[in-house]
Write a structure and sequence with these properties.
- By secondary structure, the protein is an alpha/beta fold.
- It has seven helices and five strands, in the order βαβααβαβααβα.
- It is globular and about 45 Å long.
- The termini are close together.
């Protein structure tokens, strides 16, 4: 049986992480673990202010789900911003504890595109909105992957297609 992989999405809110995550999960038959979905289950509106301690609880719930998938031999993708290094390190440690590969995927989207998506969403309400204060705090606190973190960068459809092809070939 091939070694499972833990994929972790990383990027600013509205960068397209969830869209990429759904496409990767479908293409690679991955368990999809969404922190937004966990917050919904817990009765929280992720677009508003959620205390850091509650985000921490949601993160631990996601890591428990990741651990269960990997223990069962199933590859999984965690859809979160992984905005802080310690969160990415946490996911990496879960992968290591289950002898799984760890793949960090950073969705890189220009801030202008992100802001345009937020404005469009304010009109369409296609997904949960994020208040300006919460978004500004998110951007200020975001720690992009450092040079010592192996990361796959997605900035275009071609990048995503190449990632899918490479991961299929690695199986």
């Amino acid at each position: 049986m091939p070694r499972p992989t833990a994929y972790a999405m990383c990027g600013l809110a509205f960068s397209g992480k969830s869209t990429v995550a759904r496409r990767l999960a479908a293409a690679l038959d991955l368990a999809l673990i969404s922190l937004d979905a966990i917050n919904d289950e817990r009765g929280f509106d992720g677009g508003g202010v959620i205390d850091d301690s509650e985000w921490e609880r949601t993160s631990h719930l996601a890591m428990d789900r990741l651990a269960r998938a990997l223990a069962a031999g199933r590859s999984a993708l965690v859809d979160d911003t992984f905005a802080m290094r310690f969160l990415r390190d946490r996911a990496r440690r879960v992968a290591e504890a289950h002898d799984a590969r760890f793949v960090l995927i950073h969705v890189e989207t220009p801030i202008e595109t992100i802001q345009a998506r937020r404005r469009r969403n304010d009109e369409t309400r296609a997904r949960m909105a994020i208040t300006d204060a919460v978004f500004d705090d998110h951007v200020a606190r975001f720690e992009p992957p450092g040079p010592d973190e192996p990361v796959l960068r997605i900035a275009s459809e071609a990048d995503l297609a190449a990632l899918i092809a490479a991961e299929r070939a690695a199986r």
